[in-house]
Amino acid sequence: MNAKACVLGAEDVTVRYGATTALDGVSLRVEDGEFVGLVGPNGSGKSTLVRTLLGLVEPDEGQTCCCGRPIHRFEDWSRVGYVPQDAVHVDPNFPASVLEVALLGRVAERGLVNRWTDEDREAAHAALERVGIGHLADRSIGTLSGGERQRAFLAKALASDPDLLLLDEPMAGVDAAAREDFYNLVDDLNHAEGLTILLVSHDLPAVRMCCHRLVALNQRVVFDGSPRDFEDEGGLSEAYDMHVPHHPDRAGGRP
Amino acid sequence: MTGLELFLEYEFLQLALAASGVMALLAGALGVPLVLREMAMFGHGFAHVSYAGVALGLLAGLYPLGVALVVTVVGALVMERLRARGAFSGDTRLAVVVSVGFAIGVTTVSLAGGFTTHVHAYLFGSLFSVTSTELWAMLPLAATLLVAFTLLYKEIFYITLDEEAAHLSGVPVGWINAALLALTAATIVLASRVVGLLLVAALLVIPAATALQMATSFKGAILGSMAVGLVSVVLGLAAAVSVDVAAGGAIVLVGGAVFALVTGARRAGLVRRG
Questions:
Q1: CATH number for position B16
Q2: Residues in A touching B149 (Cβ below 8 Å)
Q3: Is A29 helix (H, G, I), strand (E, B) or coil?
């Protein structure tokens, strides 16, 4: 692995949970400015791969890197924004305003013990404006809709002005209209602002629409290429273990 | 003689009020992250483990609360280690630990031929026999908690919302969790003098659960929980003195009544969150 050019990478990563192999020799490389979609059926190892890339899961074999450094030596977490799978399912009674949640994205920047500064508050407000919910800053997080809540967590991930954004099924349990708005927003973050994004999703049409590159996982990488070629080259059938007739009009993907 | 005159006249009542007030503030603050993280049963668990410590202290002829403090803090750190490794993903294993802790206490008491009076004082509380030494022992704990919550407010808030994301932001989650649970364990042991080991978890849970129905911020929830705890001990103590009932029970009953009142008011739309 060329560690210097690696924004996010995995090389021959194998993860086992007891007798179950979650990832089997997975290699992945995300380049600067790319928008990569990671798809695969339930249990295919998508979330395990994201958690391994973030250093939350120790691989049994292989190595991972982030922003040019091996993950175990990487410390500058303000460069990474992460929206976990269950962010939208936060306890509706959790006593926090939307601004307080966005401010948490500044913890890595601010450091241990130090209190919030005006700079932190301005950055959190700016992040909320960036995702279109600046007017909800003082609302309780639990009173927001699923889509608004997800935007609040995206604002938290953006509050430290990261270089890399990891979104783990960010729209699970959110209605179709909010999903479309959200994907347009992250598409814009990549297209207009050059943010490198790894998006894990079950939403194939959205991934095909937004992403430069699509990676299909089923314990191992079964497809890695243009979203346009995903069906043509059998990626869909191999990832989801099914036969899918090709519909040329359904093929999408960004150039 | 009025209630106020009684409190001004008798030192044991002043000590009882001061001790229960300090403990209510401590338990109120610690209860919020515990309840939000669905770890309320840990408080109950620590109380049961501390019973083993009290029994061992009595058996060895040592100061029971001192031994209970050591046993419970060590037990809390072991339980946190097991929790972090996913051992308490359900409540069954926690129930096993709690039961075994209590069984050690029961067995120790029976081996020693029983010290019923002493044991009852710890099980059900003996607020009116709190000594000034015990009150002084509570103050460093309160000071430690105040410093921890002031300096590590954003880190505790982050861990409470999302432990994993906090870890990714460089927050030393393991150390802070261990420190919070050690403080909780110490609070449980000392608060057992106020309401007894069997009711001490209520001081952690009821004020927090009450405040969480109204609070719109984490800080507001902590301050609200401390306030509800303080109101409960003052009114409970006053009731105990006025009608001559057990202070621990009266304090918890007042807390339960405040919880029911707020729940009812919220359901009736009289109390709203932001």
A1: 1.10.3470.10
A2: none
A3: strand
